[in-house]
Amino acid sequence: MFLLGLTGSIGMGKSTTAQMFAEEGCAVWDADAAVHRLYEKGGAAVAPMQTAFPTAIEDGAVSRVALKEIIAADPTTLPRIESIVHPLVAQDRATFLAEAHSDIAVLDIPLLFETGGDAAMDAVVCVTIPDAVQRDRVLARGTMNEAQFDAIRAKQMPAKEKCARSNYVIVTDTPDHARAQVRDVIRDIREKLRHA
């Protein structure tokens, strides 16, 4: 199975592009969705998080809002949270790959380069759009203000650098253009697999 890492900064169209890969027959795993599963009631992260951070649990689930407050109050808690969550996310991904039935598995990981996850991939595809479009898209969601957006962007590797380090780049300016590029990437990978 060919492992294709999918990455891109906030608002670049990664989730939409991941959906396009799924529609083209690729198995798709979403790191953010895995964290949501782990945090929800009955999720594997609830018990260990309750032990480490009792105030982060609300109604039997891990509250992201409470976690943000804990981290804001004491930034040194972030590595402890990550030491609980990251192995569980890795386990979720391993289970997904063991059960996937496709020649290409797309692993949607926002901080792929930042966490060194690209080393485990056969290739990486990065989604991108101009900075101004990115800003407009994120702020149009109405879920954060400019300061919050800038803070998130500051934690992420610059889009130009992500693109330079990727094997494939998909410009998500229009759905039709993005879909055509997704098909090109799949075609190229399948061609390489045939000649491997």
UniProtKB/TrEMBL annotation:
**Record Gene3D superfamilies:** P-loop containing nucleotide triphosphate hydrolases
The entry's localization annotation reads: Cytoplasm
Q: What is its EC number?
A: 2.7.1.24
List the keywords (alphabetical).
ATP-binding, Coenzyme A biosynthesis, Cytoplasm, Kinase, Nucleotide-binding, Transferase
Q: Where is the signal peptide?
A: none
Q: Which InterPro entries match?
A: Depp_CoAkinase, P-loop_NTPase
Gene Ontology molecular functions: dephospho-CoA kinase activity
Query: Which pathway, metabolic or otherwise, does it act in?
Result: Cofactor biosynthesis; coenzyme A biosynthesis; CoA from (R)-pantothenate: step 5/5
Q: What are the binding positions for ATP in this chain? A: 11-16
Reaction equations catalysed: 3'-dephospho-CoA + ATP = ADP + CoA + H(+)
Grouped into one coarse class, the protein's main location is cytoplasm
Source organism, top-level taxon: Bacteria
Q: Which family does it belong to?
A: Belongs to the CoaE family.
Q: Which NCBIfam families match?
A: dephospho-CoA kinase
**Function, in words:** Catalyzes the phosphorylation of the 3'-hydroxyl group of dephosphocoenzyme A to form coenzyme A.
Q: Write down what this protein is called.
A: Dephospho-CoA kinase
Gene that produces this protein: coaE
